[in-house]
Amino acid sequence: MKVKVWRGGADGTYQEFDVPRHPSQTVLDVVTYIQRSLDPTLAYRFACRVGMCGSCSMMVNGVPRWTCRTHVDKVSKNNQLTIGPLRNLPVIRDLVTDMREFFDKWARAKGEFRGRQSRKDEFQKVPPQSPPRLQIDATIECIGCGVCYSACDVVAWNPQYLGPAALNRAWTLVKDVRDSARLQRLRAVAGDAGCHACHSHVSCTERCPKHLLPTAAIAGLKREVAKAALQGAL
Amino acid sequence: MSFRSETILWIAQRASAAVLAVCVAVHLVTIVYAVQGGLSAAEILGRTRGNVAWLAFYSLFVLAVTIHAPIGLRPVLGEWLGWRGKWRDLALLAFAGLLAWSGMRAVLGVFL
What CATH architecture applies to the domain A100-230? Predict the structure, then answer.
């Protein structure tokens, strides 16, 4: 199989390798083979190899994917693969991107939980069948892989845009009955850098390897922000 | 522009879209229905001149367009041309004025 891999920084170029095919081979297997057997200077990032850590995302034939759970059979075209660093993030070297801006935006979207209770209080219960809990069912369990951020055209056009992952996280907290920073969070995610910039292209939802629905989360934020604005609370 | 103002713009955009959905539908259905038997300019003017309901409907239509189009152009200018900030918003305000003026000029042209 012919595999083109991005080498260098932002002004780098693709280098071609010949890689043997195996049954059930993943894209991460291909990259690991190149690094271990063909060119040990290849830089890439991975950790768990089982779709939990979110660190091995790359562009595969132009599409952002988690490479450890992406089988070559499903994505190769004419027995060829083109593997590059995630789009919308600065390239450090080869397949490694700088994720700082991606995670800084989680902080800007107030993505941290702010509870009301102290360690001396009883555990606060969240009824599993309560409407707010059910509303975030399709948006929890994000692994922070950056695939949605890389798939989003609005991020490419508007560098200030917080992006699907940060807004998705904010939505899960807005609907968390234990959280105390709802209004501050709604203020943080309103406007041109926040939920109102989303055009509902649905690329994030289409590409999310965990099958979460960030587009629905962002639509929910738009509704909550609008309600708060009309009530004069924003 | 503050996040509050941007939120208000978003609400205005959605509300004007809802008005436009009704206005465009009524407008198109009326045109198709009215011209079926053939319609002269004099007949059109005979129906529109002094017709306050007609004036109110099309004034609302113009108002919705005046609100909706500039807000929609705002991210297009920002994302495609990289044009953001005060001057973009002033240019869009001028564009809104142009839409309102030309729209009401057309409406009043067949009402008066």
Answer: Orthogonal Bundle (1.10)
Q: Does residue A129 surpass a pLDDT of 90?
A: yes
Residue for token pair 């989360």: A217
Region A101-109 average pLDDT: 97
Angle A136-A60-A111 (CA atoms, 0-180°, nearest 5)?
30
Contact at CB, A157 and B3, closer than 8 angstroms: no
Q: Check residue A81 and report its DSSP letter.
A: E
Going by C-beta distance under 8 Å and a sequence separation of 6 or more, which residues neighbour residue A25?
A71, A72, A73
How far, rounded to the nearest angstrom, does the alpha carbon of residue B6 sit from its chain's CA centroid? 20
Give yes or no for residue A57 having a pLDDT over 90: yes
Which CATH number, 3.30.465.10, 3.30.70.1060, 3.40.120.10, 3.10.20.30, labels domain A2-97?
3.10.20.30
Report the CATH number of the B3-111 domain.
Answer: 1.20.1300
Would you kindly state where each structural domain of chain A is located, as residue ranges? Answer: 2-97, 100-230
For residue A105, how far is the Cα from the chain centroid? Answer: 12
Residue from B1, B5, B6, B77 whose CB has the most chain A CBs within 10 Å, to mutate: B6
Q: Where are the domains of chain B?
A: 3-111
Q: Which residues of B touch A225 (CB under 8 A)?
A: 7
Q: In B, which residues are within 8 Å of A187 by CB distance?
A: 3
Mutate which of A160, A186, A225 to disrupt the B interface (most B C-beta within 10 Å)?
A225
pTM score, two decimals?
Answer: 0.92
Q: Mean pLDDT score of chain B, rounded to an integer? A: 95
